[in-house]
Specification:
Blueprint lengths: L3 H8 L6 H10 L1 E5 L4 E3 L7 E7 L2 E6 L5 E7 L4 E2 L2 H6 L6 E4 L3 E7 H10 L2 H26 L2 H11 L9 H8 L3 H17 L1
Helix pairs in contact: 6-7, 7-8
Amino acid sequence: MLTDIILKSIGRHIQLTDDEVAYFVSLLHPKQLNRKQFLLREGEVCKYSAFVNSGCLRGYTIDEHGQEHVLNFAPVGWWIADMYSLISQRPGNLYIEASDSCEILLLSKIKQDLLFHEVPKFERFFRIITENSLVAYQQRLMDNLSLTAEERYNNFCKRYPTLINDLPKKDIASYIGVTPEFFSRMMGARLKLKAES
């Protein structure tokens, strides 16, 4: 069923009645994205939170030199949105793009507010995932200030174990804050070390 993964994810934090499940599901809008298709572009207002049912989305910014900076990935079972834009309803800075073909479930800001009113326990669920996201961002910021590229890559592998072999190397390099060339050299050195041990 299209909603199995999202309901399992929610069930880890809150318990719903059959009626509450039916109401929640009625608010979701399924959408298919092809590889490289955008869910959101810089300058647009983010109107939805997206839950990934299959595939992977990536959130990134582009600086004044045209360089991409990957902030996060959303593999199966994860939510993604431009939180600043979603909450403020102002134009955002994020691009959200499909890394490969995706099936997502969208929950609009308007429907999320309705959901909070009709099923208040969902406020707890979204508070928990927002807090988890905030903790992850803070940890990542501290990692970027204090860890080596190698250590940042190890943390990436722990955070996104299902994506290590599926993502383009340039996206992983961008996420850990190094150039693709440096990343290739680093991975080559890791393989050499592994072969020697």
